[in-house]
Design brief:
Blueprint lengths: L1 H17 L11 E2 L2 E6 L9 E5 L2 E2 L5 E2 L4 E9 L5 E7 L4 E7 L3 E4 L5 E9 L4 E5 L2 E3 L2 E6 L4 E8 L7 E7 L5 E6 L5 E3 L13 E4 L13 E10 L4 E13 L7 E4 L18 E8 L1
Parallel strand pairs: 2-8, 10-16
Antiparallel strand pairs: 1-5, 3-4, 3-6, 6-7, 8-9, 10-13, 11-12, 11-14, 14-15, 16-17, 18-21, 19-20, 19-22
Length: 283
């Protein structure tokens, strides 16, 4: 009998909670906003990242209601330039943040951005920018509207560019190859479709001859030799040669470095291990 009483009371309580008159109970729901940092990879310093809308922290909060929220989004991180923009936030929206080189903060939108790879040979203390955005070696994110323009090269401590490459258009998933020739000379290395070596024991390289006070010739021939770093021996047999014309990128040359493992107790031979490539030039 006692069990039956408990059962009746339990059913009654369910009926009581589930009943309401129209308009007496409204389900408002709750929302929060997910914050992710797209760049740099593996970002984890969220304690120093501030994200607010109209001054209210939205990084860790849960908010009543499911309505669109309109306001001024503000993002700050350490000594980066603070970001502010009017936004329309949808319930449970994910905000994707870019902490770009040059201490810039941007809000990532997939349809407005591309990525590309930077392959730069620059001296220490030099940077390159396009439309004010600093570019770096490796992965870069850039808005499509900034991806077309002039490359400007800067020396550390100077506000004005020291060189410019005009009319650059960066394509999605491409590689931008840049090389510094002197303190004020830079070039974009042309893209090519040269296949990779057939073996990981083959070195494939090409060269750019610029000349100097000693090498004043318009054309030089470069011969390659090997030097045994294991035995400190030089082998006079030429293993490769290439002709370089001043100011022009050479064709590719392949050099084989598939030498045997060292034999600590064996004699030093041309089949030993540990070779370096040496070269000499002649006109």
């Amino acid at each position: 009998m006692k069990k039956n009483i408990y059962l009746i009371l339990f059913v009654f309580s369910l009926l009581f909670v589930s009943c309401d008159t129209e308009g007496d109970f409204i389900e408002h729901g709750y929302t929060n906003y997910r914050i992710t940092v797209m760049y740099p990879d593996h970002f984890a310093d969220f304690n120093n990242l501030s994200v607010t809308i109209d001054g209210e922290d939205i990084k860790d909060g849960i908010f009543k209601g499911k309505e669109e929220r309109i306001g001024i989004l503000a993002i700050s991180y350490l000594d980066y330039v603070p970001f502010q923009q009017k936004v329309n936030l949808q319930p449970n929206e994910t905000l994707q943040i870019l902490l770009l080189p040059g201490k810039e903060i941007e809000l990532y939108e997939e349809e407005k951005y591309i990525t590309f790879n930077g392959s730069f040979i620059l001296n220490s203390g030099y940077t390159v920018k396009i439309n004010g955005q600093e570019l770096i070696q490796g992965l870069n994110y850039i808005s499509k509207e900034k991806a077309v323009g002039n490359l400007e090269f800067y020396k550390e401590g100077e506000d004005e560019p020291i060189a410019t490459i005009s009319d650059i258009s960066i394509e999605a998933d491409s590689t931008l190859n840049l090389m510094q020739l002197s303190d004020t000379e830079f070039i974009e290395v042309p893209k090519d479709d040269e296949p990779d070596p057939l073996s990981n024991k083959i070195l494939k390289a090409r060269f750019l001859y610029l000349g100097d006070d000693m090498l004043t010739m318009d054309k030089v021939q470069v011969d390659f030799y090997i030097n045994d770093d294991w035995c400190w021996m030089f082998f006079p047999e030429r293993i490769g040669t290439i002709t370089l014309e001043k100011g022009e990128m050479s064709e590719y040359i392949e050099l084989d470095y598939s030498f045997r493992e060292p034999d600590a107790y064996g004699s030093c031979t041309s089949e030993g291990y540990g070779y370096s490539f040496y070269y000499r030039s002649r006109n």
